[in-house]
């Protein structure tokens, strides 16, 4: 097979030199497996979750995949778009194509339709390989759209189960035992194509030959001293050059080592794999390294097997570099390179100062580098200039990019990297920046020109410039600087890019509006000035430098019990925003809203005084801290709710929720705080304070009607025992099967029961509170939905000093119909091994979650396996406490604990995925939480269970039961009935109430 005309080739003399000096070993990548199998037949080669393949088994899988691809009609020289996460299917499919001379084009899982469509237009692939879904994204649906627009794609191959009726092919069904007809492949021909970072809309395709790529991987492995005892953890997306072959997967396999495939790069996923498989080597980008360093402050997972951490992909600060050996307990190696070729490494015997402060020196003697000024003249020793390079594994040109190659390469064949570097006395390079128009956001490259062009599609944006801004967490964040005819929000920009199918990491993190551009002395737009202004405006939005508006206060005496007075106050108000929250002996009532804060889990919006401010580009707890600092009211209290689906963002299942208000909080216009015999009234002006006082006095007087409510006959809720009974038992049985298959340990599955819309939530709440003993109770109406209930446990209690606690409940029995039966059921509960085991793992998980955000020595279990009466049931209850670490806020605790283990399962991520899969409806508010939050850091958050819900003209109840391997579908159904009774037995019909009052 010959190299295609669209792929530039090195001069023949250079190729002969590389072969003569044995840099190129004339081996095709597809033939390597048989060589490796001969040397390391029984060594484990690859591990993904519970599947481990030896070198012999790996070769067999690749041969079967190759045969299947060949039978499909794929032949040498064909292009195949590959967009797979870290998986066995990725490795097996790529090596199968190497054997056939088929050229895989390695796209990133994070790329979306606009990128893939452009790459398909450039490369004309005959096939497209995708997962069915990954991190919440539906790749099958995206592939359908891609195929409809691409004439060249004949086959879509899917890793994972396929939906019924799909015309696509599962990869696992493709494999064939038919003998492979191995074609003759020229080792100097293209083996695969990597993607460039790209300075325009579409990434360039980087053609890597069999010869140069094998040298790239093998020489890197030898420099890093890999061997048969090496265990390499592939953490970064393996479509990147770094984890694939620097030395990465191919380099590790060349030395007989073992590769463990990690599904996501966070410490929660990676640390347990390091401990389990005794990982010795891995590679990260700086942003992830910072995250690992922070996580290790609280995580006690044993990662002592780790010997070498490679860090590359962006500039790594010396301060963080110096932390790696002490914090992570391993040696650091800085790696600077590019998918186009050149690799620089600090050496294993370099002094620590060199490792911390430089990015290393070239991999091999035949790597040629020069550092030049703007006129391509060499700079003096130690001066900064552009790095240019060529060598045995650096490309001679991009695929199908003749015009671009004229400027990207010099006339004598050197690649213009666009990197600004200088060389120190030891010969190591120090990277100072880039001259290309590109933003390096957490290791992902954003083409400035692409986003600027896309921003102009907004009808109100006249001009747009995207600039990089230094960022402590991302390395660089992107700021969209615009000149517009009307105000344009960051949220509008994100929606615009979402509609254009742009990858999420390319969305601007910040937006600033200008009336004219700042100019340099020679009349060019001053991007340095824009970046400086972006920094200043970002600081202004995150600092609490606003003038706050005070509340007027008044204290009055009351005669009624707060439990009856609080909901009565709410009922008398006709404001669509109001909330009642019971915390211990204190009751709070908020009426109206002067500020609203809401989030989809990714970004946060604050609306106040007709002004809207968006916060994005940071972690959720940091964004919340910034937003709360911007609230313009003194000593505020927030009332709000969080939907269960917010958990899917916190646990990396999806990037954001479908609903913009999955977390919704409001600052009230008026507020009442009730304790014993007094009410503290608060309003923003004296007139509203007088109005509020009259309302409270009226409600206090009217509370004598509580006796008539207590005397009412509650509604007989229909079908509480039978509604969706069979569907629920089927879901439970499926969950038990998945648990027995080790997919997760425990999951809470729920069922929804529809009830008449004539039920009065307010009066049902008042009647139910007379007959319930909850940990918290609440009655919230936020415009278009309402929820009222009696929470059996708190998700999070945080004091103003940062002391927090959580109260996991697990294990349930009814109270029975007499004290004797209750005692009998209590003894049964305390001796039920299934319930005890279920409770113990919940407490253990709560401890582990607090370890992420608390001082380790402060964590304690202050109460263990007490029995708490909650309505018509009793539970096993424990309390886990701790002091927040100095760099954490209550929202770190909220993110760590949400959703409650009582309502999700163990492990949480897998349990949440099971819930999304096995329950027929979105949970929305059920098993989310309600909360109050104060300006001094106090937070009280209760799990939303034992509640009645109303939205979209529908009213319903919902209850669940914990499912483990010992569960029985009939028993879990009974448990839902017991829990539903806590509120179903006290529902008051508005019609019946009107008859009593008349």
TrEMBL record:
Pathway: Siderophore biosynthesis. InterPro entries: ADC_synthase (IPR005801), AMP-bd_C (IPR025110), AMP-bd_C_sf (IPR045851), AMP-binding_CS (IPR020845), AMP-dep_synth/lig_dom (IPR000873), ANL_N_sf (IPR042099), Anth_synth_I-like (IPR019999), ATP-dep_AMP-bd_enzyme (IPR050237). GO terms for molecular function: acid-thiol ligase activity; isochorismate synthase activity; oxo-acid-lyase activity. Coiled coil: none annotated. Residues 39-399 form the AMP-dependent synthetase/ligase domain. Keywords: Ligase. It comes from the Bacteria. Residues 725-979 form the Chorismate-utilising enzyme C-terminal domain. PANTHER family: LONG-CHAIN-FATTY-ACID--COA LIGASE, NONRIBOSOMAL PEPTIDE SYNTHASE PES1 (EUROFUNG)-RELATED. This is Salicylate synthase.
């Amino acid at each position: 097979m010959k190299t295609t005309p669209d792929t530039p080739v090195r001069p023949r003399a250079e190729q002969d030199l590389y072969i003569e000096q044995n840099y190129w070993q004339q081996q095709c990548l597809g033939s390597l497996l048989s060589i490796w199998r001969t040397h390391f037949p029984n060594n484990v080669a690859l591990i993904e979750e519970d599947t481990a393949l030896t070198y012999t088994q790996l070769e067999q899988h690749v041969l079967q995949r190759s045969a299947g691809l060949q039978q499909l009609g794929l032949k040498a020289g064909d292009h195949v778009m590959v967009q797979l996460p870290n998986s066995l299917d990725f490795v097996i499919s790529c090596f199968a194509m190497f054997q056939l001379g088929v050229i895989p084009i390695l796209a990133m899982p994070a790329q979306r339709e606009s990128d893939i469509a452009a790459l398909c237009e450039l490369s004309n692939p005959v096939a497209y390989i995708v997962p069915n879904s990954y991190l919440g994204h539906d790749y099958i649906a995206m592939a359908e759209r891609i195929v409809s627009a691409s004439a060249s794609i004949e086959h879509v191959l899917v890793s994972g189960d396929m939906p019924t009726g799909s015309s696509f092919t599962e990869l696992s069904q493709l494999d064939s035992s038919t003998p492979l007809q191995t074609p003759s492949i020229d080792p100097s021909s293209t083996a695969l194509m990597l993607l460039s970072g790209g300075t325009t809309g579409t990434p360039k395709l980087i053609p890597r030959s069999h010869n140069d790529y094998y040298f790239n991987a093998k020489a890197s492995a030898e420099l890093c001293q890999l061997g048969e005892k090496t265990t390499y953890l592939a953490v970064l997306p393996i479509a990147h050059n770094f984890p694939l072959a620097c030395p990465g997967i191919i380099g590790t396999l060349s030395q007989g080592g073992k590769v463990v495939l990690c599904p996501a790069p966070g410490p929660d996923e990676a640390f347990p794999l390091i401990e389990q498989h005794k990982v010795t080597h891995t590679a990260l980008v700086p942003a992830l390294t910072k995250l690992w360093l922070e996580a290790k402050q609280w995580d006690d997972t044993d990662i002592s097997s780790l010997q070498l951490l490679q860090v590359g992909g962006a500039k790594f600060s010396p301060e963080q570099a110096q932390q790696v050996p002490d914090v992570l307990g391993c040696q650091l190696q800085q790696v600077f390179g590019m998918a186009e070729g050149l690799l620089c490494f600090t050496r294993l015997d370099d002094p620590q100062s060199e490792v911390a402060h430089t990015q290393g020196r070239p991999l091999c003697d035949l790597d040629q580098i020069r550092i030049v000024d703007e006129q391509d003249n060499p700079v003096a020793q130690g001066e900064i200039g552009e790095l240019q390079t060529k060598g045995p594994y650096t490309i001679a040109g991009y695929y199908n990019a003749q015009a671009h190659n004229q400027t990207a390469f010099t006339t004598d064949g050197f690649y213009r990297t666009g990197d600004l570097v200088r060389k120190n006395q030891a010969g190591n390079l120090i990277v100072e920046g880039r001259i290309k128009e590109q933003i390096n956001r957490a290791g992902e490259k954003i083409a400035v020109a692409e986003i600027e062009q896309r921003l102009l599609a907004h009808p109100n944006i006249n001009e747009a410039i995207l600039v990089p801004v230094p960022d402590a967490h991302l390395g660089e964040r992107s700021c969209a600087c615009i000149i517009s005819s009307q105000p344009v929000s960051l949220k509008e920009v994100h929606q615009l890019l979402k509609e254009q199918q742009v990858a999420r990491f390319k969305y601007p993190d910040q937006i600033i509006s200008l009336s004219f551009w700042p100019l340099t002395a020679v009349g060019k737009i001053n991007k340095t000035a824009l970046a400086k202004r972006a920094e200043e405006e970002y600081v202004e939005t995150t600092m609490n430098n606003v003038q706050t508006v005070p509340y007027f206060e008044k204290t009055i005496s009351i005669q009624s019990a707060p439990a009856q007075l609080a909901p009565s106050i709410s009922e008398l108000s006709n404001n669509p925003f109001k909330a009642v929250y019971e915390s211990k002996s204190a009751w709070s009532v908020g009426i109206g809203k002067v500020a609203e804060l809401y989030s989809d889990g990714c970004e946060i919006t604050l609306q106040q005084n007709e002004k809207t401010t968006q916060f994005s580009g940071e972690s959720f707890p940091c964004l919340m801290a910034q937003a709360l600092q911007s609230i313009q009211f003194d000593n505020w209290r927030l009332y709000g709710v969080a939907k269960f689906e917010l958990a899917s963002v916190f646990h990396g299942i999806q990037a954001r929720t479908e609903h913009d208000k999955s977390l919704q909080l409001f600052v009230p216009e008026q507020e009442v705080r009730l304790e014993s015999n007094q009410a503290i009234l608060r309003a923003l002006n004296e007139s509203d304070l007088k109005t509020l006082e009259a309302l409270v006095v009226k409600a206090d007087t009217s509370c004598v009607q509580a006796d008539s409510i207590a005397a009412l006959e509650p509604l007989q809720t229909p079908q509480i025992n039978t509604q969706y009974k069979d569907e629920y038992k089927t879901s439970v049985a499926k969950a038990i099967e998945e648990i027995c298959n080790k997919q997760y340990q425990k999951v809470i599955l729920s069922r929804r029961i529809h009830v008449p819309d004539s039920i009065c939530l307010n009066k049902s709440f008042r009647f139910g509170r007379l007959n319930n003993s909850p940990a918290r109770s609440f009655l919230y109406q936020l415009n278009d939905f309402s929820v009222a209930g009696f929470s059996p446990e708190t998700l999070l209690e945080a004091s103003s000093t940062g002391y927090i606690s959580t109260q996991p409940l697990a294990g349930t029995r009814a109270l029975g119909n007499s004290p004797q039966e209750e005692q009998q059921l209590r003894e049964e509960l305390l001796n039920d091994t299934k319930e005890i085991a279920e409770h113990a793992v919940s407490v253990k998980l709560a401890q582990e979650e607090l370890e992420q955000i608390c001082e380790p020595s402060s964590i304690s279990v202050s109460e263990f396996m007490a029995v708490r009466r909650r309505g018509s049931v009793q539970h096993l209850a424990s309390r886990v406490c701790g002091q927040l670490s100095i760099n954490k806020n209550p929202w770190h605790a909220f993110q760590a604990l949400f959703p409650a283990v009582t309502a999700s399962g163990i492990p949480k991520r897998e349990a949440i995925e099971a819930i999304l899969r096995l329950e027929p409806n979105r949970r929305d508010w059920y098993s989310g939480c309600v909360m109050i939050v104060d300006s001094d850091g106090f937070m009280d958050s209760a799990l939303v269970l034992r509640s009645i819900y109303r939205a979209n003209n529908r009213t319903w109840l919902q209850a669940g039961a914990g499912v483990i391997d010992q569960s029985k579908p009939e028993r879990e159904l009974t448990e839902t009935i017991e829990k539903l009774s806590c509120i179903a037995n006290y529902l008051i019909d508005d019609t019946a109430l009107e008859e009593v009052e008349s």
